[in-house]
Design goal:
By secondary structure, this protein is an alpha+beta fold. 26% of the residues lie in helices and 25% in strands.
């Protein structure tokens, strides 16, 4: 059980949420979707705003904020995570986000730790949101045209082709697609390798090629995205020629 010191002004200790002792929460923003909505991709804290339709509720009521904090302190630690999130709560002081948490029907994530979501936590959130119906607003999310950004990514991968397969024996032409889920700040949040028609199975792709592509897509590139957009699974089609009987080559479609 976590210990969090909290006075009447919502003053937090440094021990749990890494909030400076002098910082006081004066605002709470609840971003909430339907608890029962189904999505094509997993919703996490990192891609919440870009992956699901949600409404926003601004709360300055210290009693409401205190109710949420108290209930979070009662949650039991969970050994499993990764469950779809349907609510994100941000705690502010003078317009600056101090910390945030994400809540799903089964688990709640606070920083990097997971806890079991209690029915009472969901009930408190719903009660607060329902009492602020007149203040609810829907975020405007743009449909993202990723084509220009994709061209830039292709050029970068081509420029790094030596890293992909230097020293690797490629007996047959490789054809596969890498799907990138793009989230906040243009970061790749998830990657999936899939087989093209008559192409390569994921297990047939040399480890070096997989690891270099993951390093590039996760850490070295950023997608050009609008401020708020729906997350997309962007396909990158990769074609690498055999280097056994003919000279090395790569083509990116």
């Amino acid at each position: 059980m976590r210990v969090l010191l909290l006075d009447i002004m919502l003053l937090f200790s440094l021990s749990v949420f890494s909030v400076k002792p002098q910082q006081i929460i004066d605002n709470m923003v609840i971003k909430i979707a339907s608890w029962n909505v189904e999505t094509d991709i997993g919703i996490e804290c990192s891609n919440f705003e870009t992956s699901i339709d949600y409404q926003v509720c601004d709360v300055q009521d210290s009693c409401a904020i205190l109710k949420i904090i108290n209930e979070l302190n009662l949650l039991e630690k969970s050994l499993k995570g990764g469950e779809d999130m349907r609510c994100k709560i941000e705690f502010y002081n003078s317009g600056e986000v101090l910390w945030s948490c994400c809540i799903g029907k089964i688990t709640t994530k606070i920083e990097s730790e997971y806890y079991y979501t209690s029915p009472s936590l969901i009930a408190i959130i719903d009660s607060i949101v329902n009492s602020h119906q007149t203040q609810l607003r829907k975020e405007v999310i743009e449909k993202w045209d990723y084509t220009p950004s994709l061209r830039k990514i292709y050029k970068y991968i081509v420029s790094q082709s030596g890293r992909l397969y230097d020293g690797v024996e490629i007996k047959e032409d490789l054809e596969f697609t890498v799907f990138c889920n793009v989230g906040e700040e243009g970061r790749t949040t998830k990657i999936q390798f899939t087989k093209n028609r008559n192409g390569s199975n994921y297990k047939d792709i040399p480890v070096q090629i997989v690891s270099v592509l993951e390093e590039i897509l996760y850490n070295e590139i950023r997608w050009d995205i609008p401020p708020k957009h729906y997350a997309e699974w962007v396909p990158i089609k990769i074609s690498i020629k055999s280097n056994v009987l003919e000279s090395k080559g790569t083509g990116l479609k």
